[in-house]
Amino acid sequence: VVGGTTYTGYLPYSDPYYSTPPPRIIRKIPGNGPITDLSLIDVQCNGWSEGGVIGSAPAPLIAPTAPGTTVTFKWTTWPDSHLGPIITYMAKAPSGTNITQWLPGNSAVWFKIAETGKSSSGVWATQTLINNAGSWSVTIPSGLAPGQYIIRHEIIALHAAWTYPGAQVYPSCSQIQITGSGNRSPTSFVSFPGAYTGTTQGIVYDVYTNTGSYPIPGPTVWT
Q1: Phi first, then psi: what are they for 172, rounded to 5°?
Q2: What angle do CA 71, 147, 143 make, to 5 degrees?
Q3: Which residues, 6 or more positions from 45, have their beta carbon under 8 angstroms from its beta carbon?
Q4: I need a surface site. Which of 35, 73, 198, 209 has the fewest CB within 10 A?
Q5: pLDDT digits over 100-139, tens only?
Q6: Is the dihedral of CA 171, 177, 179, 183 positive or negative?
Q7: Contact 87, 203 (CB under 8 A)
């Protein structure tokens, strides 16, 4: 849900089989499986390189919205065993580039806009997601400069993350058009792949023995 308008997500088990696939704002995903090799382009917007689906592909639609508005993601039923953080990034398409044709590749263009890990009382973001019937909302940063952006929204499941590879990354990428006359832009960026490695804090983490705070992977949230 972007700015009050509902957009159906990419449906990997039906969309590819239409003679004319339904247009989406969410880039293609090959299925509901995770990415565990953090060196693959699949960690950016999904993919299944082992099966020949290398990374994702741009979507045909763009959802207009304004800075300060809420974007709500609707996840399918999430297993309660798959504990972990929920993190959201954005990336702005270069000036003069149509986002429906843009692939960020290995460029450092991503900035973090939201993150939730484990609360002080031990409640994981994924548990909150389940309690909210699979609904998760983030706010577009206020004053964000206009342009075409990708929103990269992910869950990192840690139920097997006591070693690397083990953490399971579930990313999806949606295309939006930021309107208005904002003039704020971040100055620090990361790449996918690149932002996470096997030695990044929070990627190797034993959810069964660690009772303290959880170090969320990636950069600090841009505000």
Answers
A1: -145, 155
A2: 65
A3: 27, 29, 55, 56, 150, 152, 171, 172, 173, 192
A4: 209
A5: 999 999 999 999 999 999 999 999 999 999 999 999 999 9
A6: positive
A7: no
Q: Are 153 and 75 in contact (CB under 8 A)?
A: no
Q: Is the pTM of this model over 0.85?
A: yes
Q: Across the strands, what pairs with 137?
A: 72
Q: Cα-flanking dihedrals φ and ψ of residue 215, to 5°?
A: -85, 105
**Nearest one of 162, 163, 78 to 125, comparing CA atoms:** 78
Contacts of 145 (CB under 8 A, 6+ apart): 92, 178, 182, 183, 184, 185
* Residue 134 Rama label (left phi>0; alpha psi -120 to 50; beta): left
pLDDT digits (tens, 9 = 90+) for 167-204: 999 999 999 999 999 999 999 999 999 999 999 999 99
CA angle 179, 7, 174 (to 5 degrees): 60
Q: Which residues contact 181 (CB under 8 A, 6 or more apart)?
A: 146
Which three-class secondary structure state does DSSP give residue 181?
coil
DSSP 8-state secondary structure symbol assigned to residue 43 = H
Distance of CA 140 to the CA centre of its chain: 14
Side chain identity at 96, as an amino acid letter?
G
Distance from CA of residue 19 to its chain's centroid? Answer: 28
What three-state secondary structure class fits 209?
Answer: coil
Distance CA 78, CA 17 (A): 25
Say if residue 217 is preceded by a cis peptide, omega within 30 of 0.
no
